[in-house]
Protein: ATP-binding cassette domain-containing protein
Amino acid sequence: MLELRDITAGYDRGAPVVRGASLTLAPGEAVGLLGPSGCGKSTLARVAALLHRPDAGTVVLDGTPARGWRHRAPREQRTAFGVLFQQPRLSADPRLRLADAIAEPLRATGRKDQIPTRLRELAPLVGLGDDLLARRPHEVSDGQLQRACLARALVLRPRWLICDEMTAMLDASTTAALVAVVESYRRESGAGVLAVGHDRTLLERWCDRTVGWAELGAATGMPGVA
Structure:
């Protein structure tokens, strides 16, 4: 179980963008978090993935409170999450070939021996051939780069997948393909999925349930920050 309990968070302690938000996500469940731009949903997603320390509140994984954030989180908690962001070009190292970007989490966790096997498994799953794997981000489209980012998010076999507006910059066919990959992974692994977005139709078709921002008991703080 992933639990967000009464989270207050932001980038200025005097003006949090999220106040008092609570949400629960069960293993194997896909939950859509629906809200307008600026409400704080992306900040809450980063807190859920242990990428941003909240000002108040608790993140609980399987009954154990989070014990750190970003690189200070214990490895077993940090690697329980795969995260896919809205803008792949901001989350991909421009110096790395797509194959190396996908393999980066394995190298960082001392699992280099798994790289060939995981690349063979994930590349066709997300629709990347050898030619694309050899290219760098500036040599591929946004959709192709987001496919690589999804493979990177899955490479450690996470128990929780956080998708923060992952399809906002993609066309309909690429959106459908990536959602299908996420859903296939969820069915096979039992992972929970938190899908953040403002497209009600997409979230309601994709997820088991969709939660509106007002239902979290949250209040928006600073305007203009999602």
